[in-house]
Design goal:
With 255 residues, the protein is α/β, with parallel strands linked by helices. The protein is 42% helix and 20% strand. It has a single domain, classed as 3-Layer(aba) Sandwich (Rossmann fold), CATH 3.40.50.150. It is built from 10 helices and 7 strands. Strands 3-2-1-4-5-7-6 form a 7-stranded mixed sheet, with helices on both faces. Helix 1 packs across helix 5.
């Protein structure tokens, strides 16, 4: 009974996300997500770099990207030479990703719900940017664990619930400005609770690091100053906990 209820709620969440993605795809999703501003592009580059290093992407590495969306991060990851399977539940967003014409011998786009992704393949890394908070997190993490090879790495960047803006967006979504880009069921992550969940599922070598104080609306002349202030805050105890995002890396233990 409990499992049936959870599956039903997960199905409803998926329908909400697909509907939300369709609305986004009718405009410019990357603009709505604030990746197109000068500060936003720097934030995207930093995320891609963190995930690339954390998951050790490179030639010979087979990686699964969850929630690839328009393929903006997929394109960055593909530059490493890794072989990528990039999945998303939104066909509308995948069409934008496929229009990037990434090398078909190294990048495969699939319309898939990660919870239902059954394959005989396993992966050296499972990666993504700002996607876990759209899912039933525990179910998704259990699936990721099974998809990883022993010794494989999971690496994500996700919104930090302790950040004031993130908290307000999730708790007061009914306010008009947030309806446009915050979907109905998405949440955010509290790092110590998330660490406990990862341990419960069986992951080890867990690192969860608060980062990101550069707001995408930062005017270009202030970007360097705000970046330097952000680095200081990221290294300041207590204050660092209120950073905008969390970097998450962990491992399925070797057999």
């Amino acid at each position: 009974m409990k499992r049936d209820l959870r599956d039903n709620l997960s199905s409803i969440r998926t329908k909400h996300e697909i509907k939300h993605s369709k609305i986004l795809s009718q405009s410019d999703p990357e603009l709505i997500w604030n990746w197109n501003t000068p500060a936003g592009m720097l934030r995207a580059d930093r995320r891609a770099e963190l995930i690339t290093k954390g998951s050790r992407l490179g030639p010979g590495v087979c990686a699964l990207e969850i929630g690839c969306g328009t393929g903006m991060f997929t394109e960055m990851f593909a530059k490493t030479g890794a072989k990528l399977t990039a999945v998303d539940i939104s066909l509308d967003l995948l069409k934008k990703a496929q229009a990037r014409n990434l090398p078909p011998d190294r990048v495969l786009f699939l319309e898939k719900r990660i919870e239902d992704y059954d394959t005989d393949d396993s992966f050296d890394a499972v990666i993504g940017s700002s996607v876990l908070h759209h899912l039933d997190i525990e179910t998704a993490l259990k699936k990721i664990y099974t998809l990883l090879r022993p010794g494989g790495v999971m690496c994500f960047t996700e919104p930090n619930m302790l950040n004031p803006q993130v908290f307000i967006e999730r708790k007061f979504r009914f306010l008009l400005p947030f309806l446009w880009y915050v979907s109905a069921d998405e949440t955010a992550i509290v790092r110590w609770k998330f660490r406990d969940l990862l341990k419960k599922i069986g992951f080890d070598n867990i690192e969860i690091m608060p980062f990101d104080w550069l707001h995408p609306a930062t005017p270009t002349p202030l970007i360097r100053l705000m970046s330097n202030i952000g680095k200081l805050l990221e290294n300041t105890p207590v204050l660092r906990e209120f950073s905008g995002s969390l970097y998450i890396q962990c491992r399925r233990p070797p057999s």
